[in-house]
Write a structure and sequence with these properties.
Chain lengths: ~280, ~325
């Protein structure tokens, strides 16, 4: 038999291991933050937000075109993904037991696990190849495809949280099911839907792989969505892998801007859920 | 007394749903999601036909990757992907479990919320930022470490080769860092779904903390394994961060110090340079296999998590959450 002393020692060792793993996981976070903020701030200036990239070898310049590009393409992605994601979620939560509902949930989960680079190839095959033109539209579509599963699953979860009495009340007043959904249930779940959208934005704003061969890149300022377009993540990648220290500097600045965008979305998402939880009285 | 029977709607009409507008109006979008996934499989197969026909299974058995000569063997890429992901799993698995146990079993409530929030933020950092940090901070550190390796260790196959820094070790480390927050948040939700009676029972029998947690982990074993496998699926498809630190050299090597290559990385690097149809198709075929592998791994791990959800009713709500957190 194990003595009680030995058992207690084992227990203490295990607790120690758990604490250690928390520390182990938090160290890289701290290090990443430290470096991104330190290196990023050094390189960040007004030019970064207002200038386009200078030719290789010239110092200075900025990423104005890439910042605009990221905004345009995440916007295009949202335009496509929000209606699809929310509507599909309504279907899945309204017709819970249906075969299509189950299939859709499965498809959304599958889509969520598809590597982003594969989404890139897919969009290349269905958009870029036929028209023989890299474009911001293709990039936006790739980002949109990645947003859909996140929006669908969070929206679905939150639609199911809306008390059934609200739906029953609406139906008892003679509303059709469509009316109950669009005037009662969806508005009640709105903060949750916004959370889902923000989480999706946080995840795709920094995506590089699906843009590499859909939107490609662009050294110039461009807002034409049928043309190749620069984006922050792709620009950071190109600069990081280049041989010039000045471009490395700018890559860090780009990373800082990206992290700021992503964290803002995450924190806002958090606030949206908080509000929702307060309303529900959880 | 007179009996009134409520009759169901006539059978003739019952095949028409009562509210057809909403069913079809929203159903179209649901179908669209299913179609996207199906189209992905079909398109990837169609676009890689040239390579599938020409090389057949040899594509995955040979290891010469020479686009100029038109020779395409993808073995080094599949090796690099599996090796780096398994290594990452070995590092990240125990750590993720430790965090999950700490947050769900040991953590003082006041500390829990901020810690959970921090792991969530970690999961939100874009892959490219991990890659940038990996290139300029992790790789030099790993190079230092490698050059300090004692000579007797260098004779082992795991540690041969010059200390580049860029290579398997850096890739495995960066993958592990990226996977930990993801796996741990799913595992935490799984542990949360274990009924409190499981712990109380163990303590009532005189268990120490460790023994009680063992009981919890045993109850949640399928879900925890599912959570870690979900992380494995993530690691398999991770592209940018790995591309930036693994050294991008197609070779079969056991050495942690050797620069290698992964499936996702070769697609990212060479896709826009592919100048012949066969080259492009070979790259798409790698994408197709990556798609299939991640699909299988994800489906398996979701099944594990869901099978735990079915054990008990009260546990279900929380495990559904776990599946959601995985999303």
């Amino acid at each position: 038999m194990n003595g009680i002393g030995l058992r207690k020692l084992k227990s203490a060792l295990f607790v120690g291991f758990c604490l250690l793993s928390v520390l182990l996981a938090l160290t890289p976070v701290a290090l990443i933050f430290f470096f991104v903020v330190r290196q990023g701030i050094q390189a960040l200036n007004v030019d970064f937000f207002t200038q386009v990239p200078r030719p290789v070898g010239e110092l200075g310049g900025g990423m104005a075109n890439a910042i605009i590009g990221t905004l345009i393409m995440t916007g295009l992605g949202s335009l496509f993904a929000i209606p699809v994601g929310v509507m599909a979620a309504v279907y899945v939560s309204e017709f819970k037991g249906s075969r299509l509902g189950t299939l859709t949930r499965f498809a959304a989960d599958t889509l969520n696990g598809v590597p982003s680079i594969v989404v890139g190839i897919f969009v290349y095959a269905i958009v870029v190849l036929p028209v023989k033109q890299f474009s911001a539209l293709a990039g936006g579509l790739a980002l949109g495809i990645m947003m859909i599963p996140i929006i669908t699953r969070t929206t679905e979860e939150l639609l199911l949280l809306v008390p059934s009495t609200m739906r029953e009340g609406a139906l008892a007043l003679g509303a059709t099911r469509a009316r109950a959904v669009f005037t009662v249930i969806l508005p009640a779940a709105l903060p949750g839907i916004i959370t889902g959208i923000l989480l999706a934005l946080a995840r795709i704003a920094g995506e590089t792989a699906p843009l590499l061969f859909t939107a490609l890149n662009n050294q110039y300022f461009s807002t034409t969505i049928t043309q190749p377009m620069a984006s922050l993540p792709v620009q950071v990648f190109n600069y990081a892998t280049s041989a010039f220290p000045d471009q490395h500097r700018q890559a860090w600045a780009g990373a800082l801007v990206l992290v700021t965008i992503v964290f803002t979305c995450s924190v806002l998402a958090r606030f949206a859920t908080r509000r929702l939880e307060r309303i529900r009285g959880f | 007394m007179e009996h009134t029977t409520i009759r169901p709607r006539s059978r003739l009409l019952s095949f028409l749903p009562a509210d057809i507008t909403i069913r079809w109006g929203t159903g179209i979008f649901a179908v669209l999601i299913v179609l996207i996934v199906a189209a992905m499989g079909i398109e990837l197969t169609r676009e890689s036909m040239l390579s599938i026909r020409k090389f057949g299974f040899d594509f995955w058995r040979t290891q010469t990757w020479d686009p100029v000569q038109g020779e395409f063997g993808a073995l080094p890429f599949i090796w690099g992907t599996l090796y780096s992901s398994i290594l990452a799993l070995l590092i990240a698995g125990p750590v993720a479990m430790g965090i999950a146990v700490f947050l769900s079993e040991l953590c003082p409530p006041r500390l829990r919320q901020p810690l959970v929030f921090m792991t969530e933020l970690l999961a939100a950092i874009p892959s490219i930022v991990y890659g940038l940090w990996g290139m300029f901070v992790l790789v030099p550190a790993v190079r230092q470490l490698e050059s300090l390796t004692p000579a007797w260790l260098k004779t082992m196959p795991l540690f041969t080769g010059p200390p580049f820094g860029f290579g398997m070790l850096s890739a495995a480390l960066i993958l592990a860092i990226m996977v930990v927050p993801f796996s741990s948040s799913v595992a935490r939700e799984v542990l949360k779904s274990v009924p409190i009676t499981q712990r109380e029972g163990a303590y009532a029998l005189g268990a120490t903390r460790f023994e009680a947690i063992q009981a919890v982990l045993f109850y949640a074993r399928t879900g925890v394994i599912g959570a870690i496998m979900l992380g494995f699926g993530r690691a398999l498809g991770e592209t940018m961060a790995v591309t930036m630190v693994i050294g991008n050299t197609p070779q079969l090597s056991l050495s942690l110090f050797a620069p290698q290559y992964t499936m996702a990385a070769v697609i990212a690097n060479e896709f826009t340079e592919a100048d012949s149809p066969i080259y492009l198709d070979a790259l798409v075929e790698i994408g197709l296999v990556l798609f299939v592998i991640t699909l299988v791994v994800n489906a398996l791990s979701r099944m594990l998590i869901w099978s735990m959800a079915r054990q008990k009713k009260p546990a279900r709500v929380a495990t559904v959450k776990a599946a959601e957190a995985a999303a």
